[in-house]
Amino acid sequence: MGSVSDAVVRHAHCAVMVVRWKPVVFPAKILLATDGSREAILAAQMATELVEITGSELHVEHAGWVFHGAYSGWNLAPLPAGFSQAELDRGARKLLEAEVERMEGAGTQVARAHLRSGRADEEIVVLAEELGTDLIVLGCRGLGGVRRAVMGSVSESVVRHAHCPVLVARE
Questions:
Q1: What is the distance between the alpha carbons of residues 104 and 118, in angstroms, rounded to a whole number?
Q2: Comparing C-alpha atoms, which of 20, 111, 108, 99 is closest to residue 63?
Q3: What span, in angstroms and rounded, lies between the C-alpha atoms of 108 and 9?
Q4: Domains and CATH numbers, the chain
Q5: Whole-angstrom Cα distance, residue 49 to residue 66?
Q6: Under 8 Å CB-to-CB from 86, ≥6 apart: which residues?
Q7: Are 31 and 128 in contact (CB under 8 A)?
Q8: Do residues 138 and 168 lie in contact, with contact meaning Cβ atoms separated by under 8 Å?
Q9: Within 10 A of 21 (CB to CB), how many other CB atoms are there?
Q10: 3-state class of 7 per DSSP?
Q11: Rg (Cα) of the chain, in Å, rounded?
C-alpha cells in the first residue's frame, strides 16, 4: 500500500474503501470481521446495508482473544490468571454468536459464522483467501501513535495484506 493510501486509512474521518487491484462486483461475498467494539458494530451496519442493497453473501468472523471481556487482536501476554483457553474460546464464541443473532434479528441472513484464534489481522486475511471473499469490512479504532506502535493496527495490516478490497468503517 502506498504512503497516500496508508495516510488516508490512518487519518480519515469517514469510512474508507481501499481497492488495490480487484474491484468489487456485486453481488459479492462479504467478510465482516467483528470484535464487539463500537467500531465493529458500525462496520456490521455498513455490511448489512451492502448485503440488503446488493443481495450479497455475508460471512461473519471473530478472530483474536478475549481478555476480561475486552477484545485484543494481539496476544501480548500469557493467559490472564484464573482463565483457561477454553474459557477464552467460550467468551469469543458468545461474542460472535451475539453479533450473528443481532444481525439475523434485524433481518440480515448470515451465510456462516467463523471463529478463529490467533493474530486477528492474519486470521482475517487467511479466512478471506480461503473463502474467496470479494470484500472485507471491518472497523477501525483509530489508535494513537504510541498505542498503534505497540499494538499495531489490525485494520491497517488487513488493508496492506488482503487480496481483495477492504472497507474500513469509522465513527
A1: 26
A2: 99
A3: 28
A4: 3-169 (3.40.50.620)
A5: 28
A6: none
A7: yes
A8: yes
A9: 7
A10: helix
A11: 15
Kindly report whether the peptide bond that precedes residue 78 is cis, defined as omega within 30 degrees of 0: no
pTM: 0.84
pLDDT means over runs of 10, the chain (171 residues): 76 88 90 92 95 97 63 49 74 91 94 92 96 95 49 80 93 78
Q: Copy the grid coordinates of residue 52.
A: 440488503
User: Residue type for 105, please?
Assistant: G
CA atoms within 13 A on the CB side of 35: 26
CA–CA distance, 87 with 126 (Å, rounded to integer): 24
Strands 70-72 and 57-63: unpaired
